[in-house]
């Protein structure tokens, strides 16, 4: 009996240790994974879930293989590729295929803190790093150049102190889209290539979970990616940091994670004790295991509450109108002057085939929102129904 009691006490102590390890506060994992599967601060789970809202009329696909496997005999005029990673460094065969895809009309969006020499030499640009903000605030200001997208207060990307920017490029061909830092260094550019274009961005942390949920940074992400709106949008999951090391095996991944490593060691120790102590065991009651919970709805509710708590219906209405005008420019090639002219309703109706009365009402309600500081939820709902009616009635 003394031996049995000793083993029981040891088992209870190990169980208590497991429970303590499980419920003890965990330090956030700040590893920059940029993966759509990761909900850690520097994962891309949130931005991937928001892609249907950013590109409401697009067919969204995922790329998990090499760029070389893309079939280039197809037309890429209505295709956009999105890469978000720490270092965009691909082999020459993949880079050649990417250039071929861009030349056929694709929009290539690459947000990375470092670009390969082959890519920078081909597109004729250089990057640099400024250490001016290294010992300053734990965030960097970013903004847009276009007056319709630029905000007076700017946007602030957290957990970023190094200003990575484009130090040299062909000003006769390159279009500057955004800036970074207090000195307004260029960090977002468009480089035309063949029938398509490259959209290069130097701050990939802006698209991670931590920063999208910080302040008004979701608006910055929406505006940035709206430049590459297209019928087909391909999100890359292949060119991510640590992909090769993660393929080494499950034990390699467990050994690099402190919590998993401790749990694995405890499992092995308990297994040894089990075989030593319970050579003749009695059947225990089988515990009821609850089914895994679907956190998708909970996540969607969290995002919805962000806007619900603010109750800023006017801001949402203005954003919806901005996305609508971007859609008109990208889909029907309407210029900003045409959209803002007195005959805008007639021009948009002729181009899209939508009802002119619906278009006039959209513009009228937008102008009312500009002149009012508060918009009720009912007016926002009516405005949204007008946009839905426009999308359904257009050619």
Q: How would you sum up this structure, described in words?
A:
The protein is α/β, with parallel strands linked by helices. It folds into two domains: 196 residues, Rossmann fold (3-Layer(aba) Sandwich); 82 residues, no CATH class. 45% of the residues lie in helices and 17% in strands. It contains 15 helices and 13 strands. It has a nine-stranded mixed sheet with strand order 1-13-2-4-12-11-10-7-8, with helices on both faces. Helix 14 packs antiparallel against helix 15. The longest helix has 22 residues. The chain is globular. The N and C termini lie far apart (84 Å). About 1% of the residues have low confidence.
List the helices and strands and how they pair.
Elements: H1 2-23, H2 45-54, E1 59-63, E2 79-84, E3 87-88, H3 92-103, E4 107-111, E5 114-115, H4 117-123, E6 125-130, E7 139-144, E8 155-158, E9 163-169, E10 175-180, E11 185-193, E12 196-201, H5 209-212, H6 217-226, E13 232-236, H7 243-246, H8 250-256, H9 258-277, H10 296-310, H11 313-332, H12 336-340, H13 344-352, H14 356-370, H15 377-393
Parallel strand pairs: 1-13, 2-4, 2-13, 3-5, 4-12
Antiparallel strand pairs: 6-9, 7-8, 7-10, 10-11, 11-12
């Amino acid at each position: 009996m003394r031996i049995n009691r000793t083993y029981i006490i040891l088992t209870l102590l190990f169980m208590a240790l497991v429970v303590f390890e499980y419920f003890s506060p965990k330090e956030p994992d700040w590893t920059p994974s940029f993966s759509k599967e990761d909900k850690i601060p520097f994962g891309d789970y949130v931005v991937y879930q928001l892609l249907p809202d950013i590109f409401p009329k697009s067919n969204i696909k995922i790329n998990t293989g090499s760029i070389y496997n893309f079939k280039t005999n197809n037309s890429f005029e209505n295709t956009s590729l999105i890469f978000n990673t720490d270092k965009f460094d691909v082999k020459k065969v993949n880079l050649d295929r990417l250039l071929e895809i861009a030349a056929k009309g694709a929009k290539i969006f690459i947000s990375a803190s470092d670009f390969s020499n082959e890519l920078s030499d081909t597109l004729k640009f250089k990057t640099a790093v400024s250490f001016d903000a290294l010992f300053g605030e734990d965030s960097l200001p970013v903004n847009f150049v276009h007056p319709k997208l630029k905000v007076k207060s700017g946007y602030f990307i957290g957990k970023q102190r190094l200003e990575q920017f484009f130090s040299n490029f062909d000003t006769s061909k390159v279009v500057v889209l955004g800036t970074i830092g207090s000195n307004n260094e260029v960090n977002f550019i468009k480089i035309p290539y063949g029938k398509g274009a490259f959209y290069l961005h130097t701050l990939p942390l802006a698209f991670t979970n931590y920063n999208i949920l910080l302040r008004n940074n979701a608006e910055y992400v929406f505006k940035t990616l709206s430049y590459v709106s297209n019928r087909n949008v391909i999100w890359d999951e292949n060119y991510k940091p640590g992909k090769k090391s993660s393929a080494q095996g499950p034990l390699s991944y467990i050994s690099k994670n402190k919590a998993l490593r401790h749990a694995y060691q405890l499992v092995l120790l308990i297994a040894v004790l089990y075989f030593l102590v319970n050579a003749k065991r009695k059947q225990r009651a089988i515990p009821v295991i609850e089914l895994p919970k679907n956190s998708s709805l909970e996540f969607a509710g969290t995002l919805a509450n962000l806007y619900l708590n603010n109750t800023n219906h006017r801001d949402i209405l203005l954003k919806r109108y901005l996305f609508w005008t971007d859609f008109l420019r990208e889909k029907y090639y309407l210029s900003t002057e045409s959209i803002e002219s007195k005959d805008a309703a007639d021009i948009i109706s002729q181009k899209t085939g939508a009802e002119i009365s619906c278009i006039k009402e959209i513009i009228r309600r937008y102008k009312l929102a500009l002149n009012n500081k508060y918009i009720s939820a009912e007016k926002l709902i009516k405005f949204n129904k007008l946009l839905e009616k426009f999308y359904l009635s257009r050619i």
